[in-house]
Amino acid sequence: MTELWWAQIKSVIRLEMKKTFFARRGLWIYILALLPLLLFIAHAAIASRERERSSHIASQSEKKLTYQDLLAVRSGMTSQEVIALLGKPPIRFRWNQRTPNLAISAATGTGGSGTPVNLSSAYNLNGIYTDTTTFTTGGLDGEGFAYSSNLLTANRILNGVQFNFGPANQLDAVSSTGQPIGLPSGQFTALQLLATAAHGPVLSQTITVTYTDSSTSTFTQSFSDWCSCSTNPGQQPGESLAVVMPYRDLSDGTQDGQPFNLYGYTFVLNSAKTVQSLTLPNNQDVVVLAATLTKQSLGTQVSLSGPGSFVNVPHERYHYSDGVNDLTLDLSDGRVEGIEIRTAVYSLGEDSIVFAGVFQFFYLRLAIFFGCLGIFMNLFRGEILDKSLHFYFLAPIRREVLMVGKFLAGLLATCVIFVTSELLQIVVFTWQFSPNTRDLYLYHNHGLAQAAAYLGITALACLGYGAFFLAAGMLFRNPILPAAAILVWEAVNPFLPALLKKFSVIYYLKSLCPVDIPSPRGTPPLLALLVSNPDPVSAPVAILGIVIVALLVLYVSSFQVRRMEINYTSE
Amino acid sequence: MNDRIVFEDVSKFYGEILGVNRVNLSILPGVSSLVGPNGSGKTTLMNLMTGLVRPTRGRIHVLGHHPDEPEKLFRILGYSTQFDSFPKGLTGFQFVYSYLRLGGSDSQTADQLAWRAIERMNLTDDAGRNIAGYSKGMRQRVRLAQALCHNPRVLVLDEPLNGLDPLARTEMIALFRAAAADGCYVIISSHILHEVDAISDQVILLSNGYVVAEGPIHSVRNEIREHPAQILIRCDRPRDLASKMMESEHIIEARIHNDERGLLIKTQDADRFYLMLNRIALNGIEIESVAPADDDVNSVYEYLIGNDEVVR
Ligand SMILES: Nc1ncnc2c1ncn2[C@@H]1O[C@H](COP(=O)(O)OP(=O)(O)OP(=O)(O)O)[C@@H](O)[C@H]1O
Ligand SMILES: [Mg+2]
Description:
The complex is a heterodimer.
Chain A: H1 2-22, H2 27-60, H3 67-71, H4 79-86, E1 91-100, E2 107-108, E3 115-116, E4 128-129, E5 145-148, H5 149-152, E6 155-158, E7 161-164, E8 174-175, E9 180-182, E10 190-197, E11 202-211, E12 216-223, E13 239-245, E14 248-250, E15 255-256, E16 260-268, E17 275-279, E18 286-294, E19 310-321, E20 326-332, E21 335-342, H6 348-385, H7 390-393, H8 399-431, H9 435-444, H10 447-475, H11 480-491, H12 498-501, H13 506-512, H14 525-531, H15 539-563
Parallel strand pairs in A: 4-5
Antiparallel strand pairs in A: 1-19, 2-6, 3-18, 5-14, 6-7, 8-18, 9-17, 10-16, 10-18, 11-12, 11-17, 13-16, 14-15, 19-20, 20-21
Chain B: E1 5-14, E2 17-27, E3 30-35, H1 42-50, E4 57-62, H2 70-76, E5 77-80, H3 92-102, H4 107-120, H5 136-148, E6 154-157, H6 166-181, E7 185-190, H7 193-197, E8 202-207, E9 210-216, H8 217-225, E10 229-235, H9 238-246, E11 251-256, E12 262-267, H10 270-281, E13 287-292, H11 299-304, H12 308-311
Parallel strand pairs in B: 3-7, 3-8, 5-6, 6-7
Antiparallel strand pairs in B: 1-2, 1-4, 8-9, 10-12, 10-13, 11-12
Helix pairs in contact in B: 3-4, 3-5, 4-5
The structure holds adenosine-5'-triphosphate (ATP) and magnesium ion.
């Protein structure tokens, strides 16, 4: 009897093979199966190019470098020191960067001319702090940054004009809100401001000076952002660099190591009239630190924004490599400013986690899942759609035997497609390593065992999902709903009570996966549960579990197949 | 019990729709014809007999086998269905061969049996071609080949003469008779009573899912003969055909269709008409189709089935 069944099963498989392997509607299954392979091929190609580059750099080195050598470079070293340490850089770039000239700042001290305007009544910001002070006021820009009073000092003289700053660590700067500020009475040729913009440049703002006869002078001015990193700082019309400081203070007491500027502005007044008040623009991002009225005859103010206010600082970039790890140094004006070490990214440990991730999340849950859906659901359904199922039902063959034959045909097809792809993935994955690493991985780091595990899991997944989808294809006319139901069932598996959990495929597959994917800190607990496996079962239990679940589903399906009728009409 | 096909109070509903209702039949060896207009339940009865659909009520036995056991049933039964669809990509030979292999035959036996069946159906030349390229009649013949390739004792053939040319019809009919003479059960269906009554030992007349008459053919034949039948023939030379026809005394009327490609015949004796037609067809007039003129409820059924007394 079993001999007859076996002969019948073989003939069913023979008939099904062509359909499952070469069906045009099955093309996407191959694409799904081959996608991770392409990924790993690309990965290996990139890795080998990186490796070549590293070893190329290393081969060009004067000295044979070790990883320890690369780590020895410190920030602030001169280029001579670096070269003494590592030899001439095999790769070196040079360029000049235009930066505000720290040397051009206005002089400190008192004794300048003009009538400083007392802004204290208008102070509404803590814009200046002594270094290392921690503060919670928000500073100059409301985000915890402020000028350093150590650098700015209390007074500055610009073109002979005296400017006084407010006291550090208190309210000492004016954020413009369109408020009028009283001016000392008198007739002046010019009003000069030391000010800046925060949060980027602020363009075309209106400043008004009101005279005692109620007439006004109105000025339009644009303000650069205080950071030298902004575009063309200090180069708005009528704007000059007044003070350039190498850093600013942060609210946590540290310093922000790039140049910050304070700008000077000059507004020419009607010297025949007596000034009364100054109205600042209505824009909080314009911050005024000092104001002075002057009687200098016109033409004597010199703009600081001449050719000398910017300098070209030589920058350099050195690349070193020990053959595997790369070191990139950024030098500014002959000193090391930035150090970047790139250890061999394509390292075994990380890579096997990437491999595990691709396997668990793409291959297992999507590729194999939907591949099995496509093949197993169509075993019966496809033939109902083609109206050819009766061919089988007319033969002297037990319906159960027919079902088993079809199931085995599907299993054969999916296993061949997915196990082959998985095998190729493993080959490509191990191929990218150097021969030594490969041997180490395969023979000493359980590489072979892991490969076998992945292949085994792939086959088991085909078995488990195949059984589910075969049943779904017989029980339901519309495949979308049961497929969605199975997808959801598998996805919510971690949240199910222990007993229900056992009636799923992914539960066992996850237990079998050889490489755990560590969930990064800060992963939401729900997501972490998807990744982790809080109560894994042992391998024999897991394998047995899948086989039992699959047999159970097939057993239930065998009743369905006995009762199946040929009804092509209501599709 | 084990020597006949038995329907015991069988009903089949497709959801709300009636397929057949309260059918009680006992079919003996010989040619039995299921006759009825479209939708009367012929295919449903055959599908029930072969387990392709399951009865809503009642029991069926085919020579002691239950239709729920295809592994036993189809050893003695071959079914040529009305479904005009085939597994993809198979040639005519592969179709019959793989059917035999499904039954468990070894490759040699299957090969032999398949070729024999294909030869019987005159398909030898086309057996290597993909079925997708077959004509309607060839598809019909390859289905018949599949049904009888394993020499079953019961042949269930749904509209087996459909699509066959007159020559093939004659051959098929001879084949049915030969099988019946061998003690086989040949069950065929048709919606043209005249097509089958000459060859049937028993007719089962169906209407709207009910068996309305059942019995040896001569008991119903005479009644039918008294009533003229109208038959539409499409052919290339209707005038020649008409003049030949009118020589026979049972033809009451022959009218040429307007397009000169058809002929409407009114006859007293449809049996003899069909016999004559086969002879004439061999004489070089190309006949495209032969069909009862009243398509749906033809005159025969009006007489036989439209009568309430017969139904109850
Ligand atoms: N799969 C089905 N679903 C719903 N109704 C069906 C189905 N198959 C048949 N029927 C209905 O059952 C009735 C009998 O159909 P059946 O196919 O048995 O008729 P038939 O005598 O073979 O007709 P034909 O001469 O056209 O082949 C019809 O009313 C038909 O509409
Ligand atoms: Mg029918």
